[in-house]
Design a protein that fits this description.
By secondary structure, the chain is α+β, with helices and mostly antiparallel strands. The protein is built from 17 helices and nine strands.
Length: about 425
Amino acid sequence: MAKHAVLSSGSKMWRSMSCSKSELRLDLTLACGQSFRWRETTEGHWTGVMGGRVWTLTQTDETLWYHVYNNQDKQKEGSDRKRRVGVSVLDKNTAEKRFKCAPEKEEHEPLAVSSVQNRELDEEMLRDYFQLDVRMGDLHKEWGAADCHFKHIAEVFKGVRMLRQDPTECLFSFICTSNNHISRIQGMVDRLCQALGSPLCQLDQTSYHDFPSLSALADSSIEARLRDLGFGYRARFIQQSAKQILDNHGPQWLEGLRSSPYLEARDALRTLPGVGTKVADCVCLMSLDKPEAVPVDTHVWQIAKRDYKYAANNGQKSITEKLNRDIGDFFRKLWGPYAGWAQSVLFCSDLKKFQSLKETAHLKQPGKDEDGEEEKMPCKKTKVKTECTGTVGNLKARPTCHKKAKISVKKEPVM
């Protein structure tokens, strides 16, 4: 039986590309609730399904290593990979060959088999999935200049990136998130793929399956089947949403929303059963190229109140459409057009699983000046309230260091 690949067993069957941990940290990005299909199969090694194939990823300080396994059905490779991940076909005359490999002779080949074809496409898929043309260092610099709280947290949460997922997988995974938590959502998505997805390969005792197609999810028998698998009321939402997409729009509709304006795409998603504003914003941000989308849930609301002294009117206790819009607008005004990316860093830092890492940021004490006096952070927090109109444009006050970020993102390969 094939086993999960481990870099320490030999690099001959691995490939690599230059990517520093300050630009991408796998442990944070793949475990913060964006995608629910990646698992840490060995320490520092993450295995999951992307583009209809199974990958294991690991990294050293300046290098991202990847291993791709052969599918049981090898005919699924090629055009299916490009369709699912959304990678444009490379111009062979102009495509830059970035592939780097440092093979070493090993006494034993890795037990899992990795394809040796389409290396350039594989790397392009990774760049597309992790959006590596967006430089996080530039964004952090801009956000930190406008927001000292973000700057403080980001010192230890570098490398949190937004994924560019397959829209179908992203949408139906997030329909499962209603009144749920990450570990339970992962189990539901796994059961969904095991029951309805095409088998890809088996490693150790784990079977990997592709994400189900829209036609598979829309079948009239699916609701009852998913209820038997523990999906509850979400089973109906999944089946009805898939059917509505196919009946009213067609199988390419979701990917087509990538070219629509943010609000138009969000409102279109909200017409689907089980898709509210938060789920629609998640799908916009994580699969539809809408970096300004700011999903607002209880985590983000608490961050706004606790760290930015955002005060809702009349002691509001639940997230309404108006509150969702106001908080989203507040952060868009503060962080600029990539506000959703900045929000993901703070969201990640607020998860319980990363609290030990967050504590290292709090343990960092201000330095001493030349006279031995403790330096003060140049950020004085002032309570933020909205006028009766509730629009962010009428904020009475905000922290003095919170200035609107002027983002000028350089989209270049991360080297």
